[in-house]
Structure to design on (180 residues):
């Protein structure tokens, strides 16, 4: 049986974003964890149109759909902007439907309160898309896990949480694969 494929979705497209640093850190832990094949999925690379704008035939949409369809599960890198997820992540979620169904996801968030409010919003959206989000939630603080808000320097304790989250994402992704 082929390894599960888990996408680590970078949820920000802003200039100066720190999600690539967090995503690479998660991928490093995930690659050591094993149990699946992990890859960074950067929504900024897809040049996605806003939902309802354009012809629906833009190349980024097809590539986005194909990427999501190829994955068995996800780890979302979710930043908290104004007590919620980014507009870019919400748009990327809304631009697909069936491609998300019956898959699992973990969430690694960051913000002034660890991205907790963004995570709660994301959980509701994932439920509507039939994505089973796992319980373990590594929450990173802008005050203690980032230097000057720009250089990611996570506390060592987060490694255990990421590994526990990955255990759950892999287990649920494998179980849900039987439904697809």
């Amino acid at each position: 049986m082929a390894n599960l494929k888990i996408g680590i979705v970078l949820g920000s497209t802003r200039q100066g974003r720190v999600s690539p640093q967090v995503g690479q850190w998660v991928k490093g832990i995930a690659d050591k964890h094993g149990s699946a094949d992990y890859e960074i999925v950067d929504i900024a690379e897809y040049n996605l149109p806003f939902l309802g704008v354009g012809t629906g035939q833009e190349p980024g949409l097809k590539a986005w759909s194909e990427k999501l369809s190829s994955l068995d599960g996800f780890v979302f890198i979710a930043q908290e902007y104004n007590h919620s997820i980014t507009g870019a992540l919400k748009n990327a979620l809304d631009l697909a439907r069936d491609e998300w169904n019956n898959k699992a996801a973990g969430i690694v968030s960051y913000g002034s309160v660890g991205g907790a409010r963004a995570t709660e919003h994301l959980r509701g959206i994932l439920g509507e898309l039939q994505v089973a989000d796992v319980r373990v939630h590594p929450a990173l603080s802008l005050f203690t896990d980032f230097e000057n808000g720009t250089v990611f320097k996570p506390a060592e304790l987060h490694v255990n949480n990421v590994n526990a989250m990955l255990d759950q994402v892999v287990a649920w992704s494998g179980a849900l694969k039987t439904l697809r």
Notes: The helical segments are 19-33, 59-70, 87-94, 116-128, 157-177. Residues 24 and 40 are 8 Å apart (CA to CA). The radius of gyration is 15 Å. The chain has a mean pLDDT of 96.
